[in-house]
């Protein structure tokens, strides 16, 4: 993968997080039971669990945050 392709994937991932959109996320994540994600909330196994834990949590943060869309952090006044 060249650098531009990697950057494009990072942009898609950031868009998925900003929008809490699992449709966009499925374009950059492995969407099989082999998918794995380690975060401060623990270790998620399989795409269904990754979606549930990672994106549901992000939706809650967005719901209760005064963040500016597109900052990439879900935190007011911070940018990625």
What does this structure look like?
It is a single chain. By secondary structure, this protein is mainly α. It has one domain (3-63): Nuclear Transport Factor 2, Chain: A (Roll), CATH 3.10.450.50. Helices cover 48% and strands 10% of the residues. The chain has 3 helices and 2 strands. It has helices spanning 3-19, 22-25, 47-63, and strands spanning 36-39, 42-45. A two-stranded antiparallel ribbon has the order 1-2. Strand 1 (36-39) and strand 2 form a beta hairpin. The longest helix has 17 residues, at 3-19. It is globular. 10% of the residues are buried. Residues 71-80 have low confidence and may be disordered.
In short:
The protein is mainly α.
The N- and C-terminal alpha carbons lie at a distance of 23 Å
What is the C-level CATH assignment? Answer: Alpha Beta
Secondary-structure content class: mainly alpha
Using only C-alpha atoms, the radius of gyration works out to 13 Å
Sequence of strands across the biggest β-sheet: 1-2
Element-level helix/strand string? HHEEH
Count of all domains? 1
Q: How much of the sequence is in beta strands?
A: 5-15%
Extended strand count? 2
Instruction: Write the CATH architecture name.
Output: Roll
Largest sheet report: 2 strands, antiparallel
Helix content: 40-55%
Find the CATH topology.
Nuclear Transport Factor 2, Chain: A
Give the low-pLDDT segments: 71-80
Globally, the shape reads globular
Q: Report the average pLDDT across residues.
A: 79
- How many helix segments? 3
């Amino acid at each position: 993968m060249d650098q531009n392709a990697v950057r494009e994937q990072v942009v898609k991932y950031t868009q998925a997080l900003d929008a809490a959109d699992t449709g966009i996320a499925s374009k950059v994540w492995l969407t099989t039971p082999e998918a794995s994600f380690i975060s401060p909330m623990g270790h998620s196994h399989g795409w269904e669990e990754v979606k549930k834990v990672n994106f549901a949590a992000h939706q809650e943060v967005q719901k209760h945050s005064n963040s500016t869309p597109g900052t990439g952090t879900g935190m007011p006044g911070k940018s990625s």
